[in-house]
From TrEMBL:
<comment type="subunit">
    <text>Homodimer.</text>
</comment>
<keyword id="KW-0456">Lyase</keyword>
<dbReference type="GO" id="GO:0005829">
    <property type="term" value="C:cytosol"/>
</dbReference>
<comment type="pathway">
    <text>Porphyrin-containing compound metabolism; protoporphyrin-IX biosynthesis; coproporphyrinogen-III from 5-aminolevulinate: step 4/4.</text>
</comment>
<dbReference type="InterPro" id="IPR038071">
    <property type="entry name" value="UROD/MetE-like_sf"/>
</dbReference>
<dbReference type="Pfam" id="PF01208">
    <property type="entry name" value="URO-D"/>
</dbReference>
<keyword id="KW-0627">Porphyrin biosynthesis</keyword>
<keyword id="KW-0210">Decarboxylase</keyword>
<dbReference type="GO" id="GO:0004853">
    <property type="term" value="F:uroporphyrinogen decarboxylase activity"/>
</dbReference>
<feature type="domain" description="Uroporphyrinogen decarboxylase (URO-D)">
    <location>
        <begin position="154"/>
        <end position="170"/>
    </location>
</feature>
<feature type="domain" description="Uroporphyrinogen decarboxylase (URO-D)">
    <location>
        <begin position="32"/>
        <end position="41"/>
    </location>
</feature>
<comment type="function">
    <text>Catalyzes the decarboxylation of four acetate groups of uroporphyrinogen-III to yield coproporphyrinogen-III.</text>
</comment>
<dbReference type="GO" id="GO:0006782">
    <property type="term" value="P:protoporphyrinogen IX biosynthetic process"/>
</dbReference>
<dbReference type="InterPro" id="IPR000257">
    <property type="entry name" value="Uroporphyrinogen_deCOase"/>
</dbReference>
<keyword id="KW-0963">Cytoplasm</keyword>
<comment type="similarity">
    <text>Belongs to the uroporphyrinogen decarboxylase family.</text>
</comment>
<protein>
    <recommendedName>
        <fullName>Uroporphyrinogen decarboxylase</fullName>
        <ecNumber>4.1.1.37</ecNumber>
    </recommendedName>
</protein>
Length: 373
């Protein structure tokens, strides 16, 4: 049966719209902040849930996914300005027909990855999001209710190139040599795979918004492994389709939903700052890793997009006083009045101290209020 279409009227009113205002380019009284992997193994309350349940069991059970999504929102009440639904980018390859396991201490593992283009025949030709990924939609709707308007909720997907890389490598990899071999040995078949992933990702993002997601992020975590010309051929054309097609589809459903802000995180892709912020690429927000200087990023993106990021996650190992000083520098470089969302340059690490994350969040709040007053 079709999944219902939800709009703002179906949910508790939003009490904190700071991040939505920044996404629209409006000026704000303080800098909004959220953190990639804010739900995860650095939190003892998450490890407790994980001790009882397998990773993908949590993803597939809406009340467990909701529970862990809310853990950082409860713990850091008033300090986080967005939540992100607990799930994984690899639910898409699963829905396309590949098995994915989450191995303790090793991360994701595909027992039967795509070895050569004959294996493309193993992928489902039509993925029915409302059936195969219904559990994510249910988790989003439930979480939006339980958030009770405290902060907006992000939905997300992996970018086509990053998902292709996992589907071929079969897990994490240092060199991505198998996936990159496809690009040079079988460029046309690679494009076929990228297009098939893009089609699923577009449908999935549209469905997440209809289920209640208020912002969307596309994670191209492996963009930085590509040469600039390979990025231009094998990543950018697919990244570009996503906001165009998602907005067109949402406009047909309900014009209010079509303005949902979209973030692109092309990790490591310095060379793509200009191309990803060009006017024909319709992301509202670019998330930056820590190897990019904020002033440089501002200049190279021409003030056209909101920037998000970008402290090195290792900063959270520092004494709290150092965290505070580094935050002050970061805020000054990005500018605090408009077009900036604080985050880290990548996700939380499992051995981070939750109290040091608190120091980071408090510093962003206090320093940005000071700079804006
Ligand atoms: O056993 C565990 O609990 C595993 C740890 C873990 C967690 C907490 C994994 C395995 N995924 C997640 C959740 C997750 N993954 C979220 C949840 C929401 C939140 O941020 O709070 C999100 C947004 C992701 C996205 C994700 N998964 C990305 C993109 C972001 C990034 O980190 O670059 C990637 C690359 C993955 C794949 C993945 N899943 C898990 C791991 C350890 C990895 C990376 C593996 C590798 O090294 O390649």
């Amino acid at each position: 049966k079709p999944y219902p279409v939800y709009t703002d009227q179906d949910f508790p009113p939003l009490k904190n719209d700071l991040i939505l205002r920044v996404a629209r380019g409006e000026s704000v009284e303080r800098v909004p902040v959220w953190i990639m992997r804010q739900a995860g193994r650095y939190l003892p309350e998450f490890r407790e849930v994980r001790a009882q349940h397998d990773f993908f069991t949590i993803c597939r059970n809406p009340s467990l996914a909701c529970l862990v999504t809310l853990q950082p929102i409860d713990r850091y009440a008033g300090l986080l300005d967005a939540s992100i639904i607990f799930s994984d980018i690899l639910v898409v390859p699963q829905a396309m027909g590949l098995e994915v396991q989450m191995l303790e201490k090793k991360g994701p593992h595909f027992p039967d990855p795509l070895v050569d283009p004959t294996h493309l025949a193993r992928l489902k030709t039509k993925v029915d999001i409302e059936t195969d990924l219904r559990y994510v939609l249910e988790a989003i709707t439930l979480t939006r209710q339980k958030l009770d308007g405290r902060v907006p909720l992000f939905g997300f997907v992996g970018a086509p190139w990053t998902l292709m890389a996992y589907m071929i490598e079969g897990g994490g990899s240092k060199t991505l040599s198998k996936a990159k071999a496809w690009l040079v040995k079988w460029p046309e078949e690679s494009k076929d795979l990228l297009q098939r992933i893009t089609d699923v990702v577009v449908d999935f993002l549209v469905a997440q918004v209809k289920a209640g997601a208020q912002l969307l992020q596309v994670f191209d975590s492996w963009a930085g492994e590509l040469s600039p010309s390979h990025f231009a051929t094998f990543s950018l054309p697919y990244l570009k389709q996503i906001p165009l097609r998602v907005r067109a589809a949402l406009r047909d459903v309900n014009p209010d939903l079509a303005s949902t802000p979209m973030v692109v995180f092309a990790r490591g892709a310095h060379y793509a700052l200009e191309s990803l912020s060009s006017p024909n690429i319709e992301y509202d927000i670019m998330s930056l890793d820590w190897t990019i200087d904020p002033v440089d990023a501002r200049r190279r993106t021409g003030g056209r997009v909101t920037l998000q990021g970008n402290a090195d996650p290792s900063l959270l190992y520092a004494p709290k006083e150092t965290i505070k000083q580094e935050v002050a520098t970061m805020l000054e470089k990005f500018g605090t009045k408009e077009r900036y969302i604080a985050n880290l340059g990548h996700g939380m690490y499992p051995d981070h101290d939750p109290e040091h994350l608190r120091a980071y969040l408090e510093a962003i709040r206090d320093e940005s209020i000071k700079l804006n007053s």
